[in-house]
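Entry 14: structure prediction run for RBR-type E3 ubiquitin transferase. Input pasted below.
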Amino acid sequence: MSELEVLESIFPDFISTNQPHQPDKFESFLKLEIPIDLGEPYTVVLVDDVTDSNVATLSLTSLPPLLLHVVLSAAYPSQGPPAVTVRAHHSWLPTPLLWRLQAILRGMWTPGEGVLYEWVEIIRGGDFLGSLDLKSSRVIQIKHPSPQLLGPLLVSYDDSTRSANFSQGSYPCAICLTSIKGSKCLQLSCIHIFCRSCLLDYWSLCITEGNIEKLGCPDPECIKMGRESSEEEIARVVSEQAVQRWRWLKQKFMFEKDPSLTHCPMMFCQSPVPKPPDSESDAGIDRLRICPACSFSFCGFCKRTWHGAVQECPISHAETVVLEYLALAEDSSERHVMELRFGRTMLRKLVARYQEEQLNKKWLAASTVACPGCSVNIEKNLGCNHMTCSRGCGTHFCYRCAAKLNPSDPYKHFSTPGQPCFSKLFDFVSEDHEWQPF
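Run finished. Output tokens:
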């Protein structure tokens, strides 16, 4: 078997043009396209060839292939090496280094011995990078005249190569315990692999039930760490309708955790607007809100177009105004003066809002307990008095007295004699179906 036949049997994908070498002919031609697999992630530093400054730092496991145009003369392999010309896809390797590599490849020839297999091996494993002084330890430094353009090309090639390699393999799904083809699986950013069918069922159920804090990697270790999946990962599995509901739930929980957030008053927007950073609570500018979605500037109190920090907001002291207004008699001239000052419609809105807030505060005080970790109000209708906050902080606490509990032994609080909540882990239901403590 000739050298070319052996090479083609080992690396059939590398030979794109193969004209068998025939000794009776003067020369024959061969084209080799050799991908570069580094085996493990390497730090690739792109340096501007003009300014000699670092432009980008990438983490890559593969590099675009090198294209070898080989001319096999009648004297090869006994009397002379093959003639070779090297090109690089995306021109990631500068021309002077390509010339050096050609000289290195020709120097590897030994009289009477074939050298093509050695060429393929030194290129596909990336060993030639060390010979070109590009690789030291786990860092590869590439000087290029246009590193800003080269960086995205290298990342795109590396991603496509990893995706192709992943699709060709088979992997066990930790949920259904079945070995599935890689094209039907998804590898999360935490490296855990699950089949798309199991992820679709699990994530769809979490979104339907509103448990988006569990919308992450199903692996037990990732669940303990509270790792959440990115929107890109979620969109690759669930439907667009489910993604929209996930976004809505995420904004809803964001509002529950951060009371300083407010909705944009524009009806077509309604995006969450955060409080400006580093603002003083007693300054007028603290009322300014700028919607990050539609850029609408408004007052955080009255929800109207921003009226400046100097002008007094009609509801900046809303509770005081409402109390003064309610204290006045129906036929009081002072009440009429207040209506002229603030506007009858505005005052009615303030009164309605104040009364609603008072009713909400009364209900929250009577029917809920605030989490001692994040102050989110929690209502319990069934179950034991050991609570775990599911709104992000994960604090363990007692529903009866709101005391924090030791996560490693939360039930000690209910089993220690002399404690107020001793033997009161559960409540009972009386005959009139009202919850009563022991």
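Notes: The first helix runs from residue 3 to 10. Will compare against the previous run tomorrow.
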